[in-house]
Each structure stands twice: as structure tokens, then as C-alpha cells.
Amino acid sequence: QQEATPPKPPPKAPGSPPLPRQNSKTTPPSPPKIITDKSGRLQFSRVGFLGEGGFARVYEVQDVRGARLACKVVTKSSLKTKKAKTKLYAEIKIHRSLQHPNIVNFQECFEDSDNVYMTLELCPSGSLMDMLRRRRRFTEPEARFFMVQLIGACHYMHTHQVIHRDLKLGNLFLDANMNVKVGDFGLAALIENPGERKKTICGTPNYIAPEVLFDTANGHSFEVDTWSIGVILYTLVVGRPPFQTKDVKAIYKQVLLYLYLDRANESSRRIRDNEYEFPTERVISSAVQHLISQILTPVPSQRPTLHEIVDHAFFTQGPVPSYIPTSAHDAAPDFG
Ligand code: ADP
């Protein structure tokens, strides 16, 4: 397991004033046990904590009928800047416009005096990242199953002019039947004019495409999601991402960029130089290797379309299971 360790801070000069603590993030107060909107029409009871992201905390809640949901909570105190508000409104506008069996369903959005709340379909089985940690890697039939669902969701988003821009295993949730649900539209963008290209991304997408890093003049578009799909496929069958370096972990990225510019740039350099390899100690089919190499093409216009991807021999000449048993959370299923 390659784990990042934070860089040691430079030695302090004697007598220098103490540095402000870098990680002194204060935890906001918990939302109320009974969450209601201002009108009292909506009412949910908070029953558990699910996780925490960049600017939101996610709780499990129950509605008045007893149905379980996820509730994403953003404190109003974190929405003081215009930029923060614009980002949240964009996420809500985009996410609530999408309805697809493989996209986390967005239900309601409301506020009280302290927080903004979004209720979402509950994904009780964690993400593909959690599952990969337990399993270490997936079989190729499992990879086909998950990828077909992901590509279906992605095709739907693209036909609705939405680029997700942060497709990664941690944002691919699983429902109780092991179906993929794409979540977290915090970096998503809407393409409002045909041919429009995006020039900036606020945030740090995990599986970042080369044109985002190296072609800021031309911008990027839907093909960044195709790139991420290639990174995801590689990660599922190999067990680690193709461009990962030992010491880069999202939370330390900023610090590293500042202190060890060259090391933080190592994974970007590998992306630029299209430098990745397949392990040789076990069999990874030539079909999947060929497909991955086609997708991870540095020039975005040369990447295959989503249709071309599902028409590739990896999908058409190997078994695609009709479902994945829940036992697959911990051990490889036998599809034989
Ligand atoms: P990010 O970590 O990318 O900021 P979110 O803020 O959307 O992601 O979510 C934070 C965490 O909350 C996730 O990593 C996950 O553990 C949990 N979570 C988010 N959405 C759901 C959901 N619909 N069902 C179950 N758990 C969820």
C-alpha cells in the first residue's frame, strides 16, 4: 500500500513567531436531530453520519414515511463568498437536472437558518474505492459490469451537456444491488453553447486529463470524462491508478506544491508524457490493455467515443455479468 506522508515543515529559525496551525479546521456544529425546511413541509430525522467531503457533511436521514436517504449539509457560514455560493448553486442546478438509474438521485434542496440541505438517494454500500481497498483489484467481468453502467451514466450526462469532471472510484457509489451510482457533481460543468470549451476547473480533479493541465489556452470539454473512464478502467483491473506517485495525496497536494514543487509535479509529468505501464506479474488481457491505451490518448479529439468504447472487443468478446452478487464486496465472485 502506497501511502503519502506529509512533508516535514522546514526547521524554524530560533525566535521566529509560531506558525498558524495548518490543519486547525474547526468542525461545524451538527445539524439538528430533526431537519426541517422553513415552511415545515419537509421533515427528516438525522439517524447517522455517512461521510465528509470538501465543503459538505453527509448524514443518513429518514423521511416521515421511514424512507432512508442521504442528506448533504453545507453550512451557510462556509458560503460567505460569492464564489462559494456560485459553486454550490451550479452543483445543485446540474445535479437536480439529471435523472438516470446510474446517477445518485437528487431529491430535495432546502435551507434553515444555519445550513443548506440536499437530500439524495442513499447509497448504503459505500463507493467502488472502499470496495477496491478490500478487494485490491477486480476481475475483468466485474470491470465490464461496472464500466457499462458508468459509461451509460456518462453518455446520459453528455447528451444533457454536462461534463462531470471528477469521475473517480470514490465518486462511484453502489446501491444495495451493486449497481453503480455516479455522485458528487461539485466540479461538474454545463456546456451551454455548442463547441464551448471550459478554461478553468476550481478544485482538484483526481483523474485529471492532460489537456486540463497542459492546454489551458484551448480549454477542455467532454473528453476529460473519457480520460477519467480510462483511468478508472485501469484502476479496476490493475488495483492502482496509472499515474499515481508515492507521495501525492490530495490533502497534502497544496503543501507539496509549495514545498516540493518538483515532487508534486511528478504525477503531472507522467500524465504529460503518457507514462504508465501494466504490471507483468499477473495476466491482464490484451483486450483491456489495448482499450485503455486507446482511451488514455493525450490528444482529446483522438480518444474513442463512448459508443466506440462499448463496441471494443474487451466488452463484446468477454462475459458481462447480468448482476454482481453482494459477496463481491469481500471476495472475487466466480462467474464460471
Ligand atoms: P466528496 O468527498 O467528493 O466531497 P461528497 O461531499 O459528495 O464527496 O460526500 C462526502 C462523503 O459522504 C462521501 O465520500 C461518502 O462517504 C458520503 N456520501 C455522499 N453521498 C452519499 C450517498 N448518496 N449515500 C451514501 N453516502 C454518501
TrEMBL record:
GO annotation, cellular component aspect: cytoplasm; kinetochore; nucleus; spindle pole; spindle pole body
Entry keyword Nucleotide-binding: yes
Organism: Hebeloma cylindrosporum
Domain Protein kinase residues, every copy: 44-315
Presence of keyword Transferase: yes
Location of this fragment in the whole protein: 23 to 358 of 639
Disordered: annotated segments: 1-38
MF GO annotations: ATP binding; protein serine/threonine kinase activity
Protein name: Protein kinase domain-containing protein
Domain of life: Eukaryota
GO biological process, alphabetically ordered: mitotic spindle organization
Chain sites annotated for binding ATP: K72
Keyword annotations of the record: ATP-binding, Kinase, Nucleotide-binding, Repeat, Serine/threonine-protein kinase, Transferase
UniProt feature, compositional bias: Pro residues: 6-20
